TrEMBL record:
<feature type="transmembrane region" description="Helical">
    <location>
        <begin position="82"/>
        <end position="102"/>
    </location>
</feature>
<dbReference type="InterPro" id="IPR009339">
    <property type="entry name" value="DUF998"/>
</dbReference>
<protein>
    <recommendedName>
        <fullName>DUF998 domain-containing protein</fullName>
    </recommendedName>
</protein>
<keyword id="KW-1133">Transmembrane helix</keyword>
<feature type="transmembrane region" description="Helical">
    <location>
        <begin position="114"/>
        <end position="134"/>
    </location>
</feature>
<feature type="transmembrane region" description="Helical">
    <location>
        <begin position="146"/>
        <end position="164"/>
    </location>
</feature>
<feature type="transmembrane region" description="Helical">
    <location>
        <begin position="55"/>
        <end position="75"/>
    </location>
</feature>
<keyword id="KW-0812">Transmembrane</keyword>
<dbReference type="Pfam" id="PF06197">
    <property type="entry name" value="DUF998"/>
</dbReference>
<keyword id="KW-0472">Membrane</keyword>
Length: 204
């Protein structure tokens, strides 16, 4: 990939993360009586804001694919780099599936089962991507390497707590903390990779 293509991929990754956050926040005001602290992201999958929330999830799915492309030059030659890229691609697919079946969240049907397994998969794929990327990110930035480790560990600790200690009063806040950790890792990694590709004047 050319420096220009790498910068473009990294920029798309950052934009996808921003779009996902904006879609969530705007959806709060479109859903009647919605409480983002108590209610989960999946609760936005029904009603007038469902299309916007699904769009936000699709944007993040695109961001994960874009980060895979931006990460390729450093990950392809790094230990476990292939695993990080594989986890990112599977993460993109998983989020897309969740967006597709989000309307069934909490219901007793096969769609709800797919949604639940998709959520479980997030708990493996994201920390897997962040941990496996560490050897590659070591060549990009020492701070980014440590940040990647911190985000993965935070997810490994907080993920099971969210899944197995549910509370009707803070489910939404807990889920959003996990989502922000994932978005922060993708966007910050993409920004570092964009800078590493060189200034805009490097080509043409």
């Amino acid at each position: 990939m050319t420096p220009s293509a790498l910068r473009s991929a990294a920029a798309v990754a950052v934009a996808g993360c921003i779009a996902a956050v904006l879609a969530d926040m705007i959806s709060w005001f479109l859903a009647n009586g919605y409480n983002p602290v108590a209610q989960t992201i999946s609760d936005l999958a029904v009603g007038p804001s469902s299309w916007l929330m699904d769009l936000g999830l699709w944007c993040f799915s695109v961001a994960a694919i874009a980060l895979t492309l931006a990460l390729w030059p450093v990950a392809a030659r790094a230990r476990y780099g292939w695993l990080s890229m594989l986890c990112l691609v599977l993460l993109a697919v998983d989020v897309a599936v969740i967006a597709q079946v989000n309307e069934y969240a909490g219901e007793g049907n096969p769609g709800a089962d797919i949604h639940q397994w998709g959520v479980y998969a997030l708990g493996v794929l994201f920390p897997g991507a962040a941990l496996a990327a560490i050897p590659a990110l070591r060549d990009v930035s020492g701070k980014l390497e440590r940040f990647s480790l911190a985000m993965a560990v935070a997810w490994i600790i907080l993920g099971p707590f969210y899944m197995f200690v549910p509370s009707d009063s803070w489910n939404g806040a807990a889920e959003r903390v996990l989502a922000l950790i994932m978005l922060a890792w993708v966007s910050r990694t993409a920004r570092h990779l964009r800078r590493r590709a060189g200034p805009l004047t490097a080509v043409g």
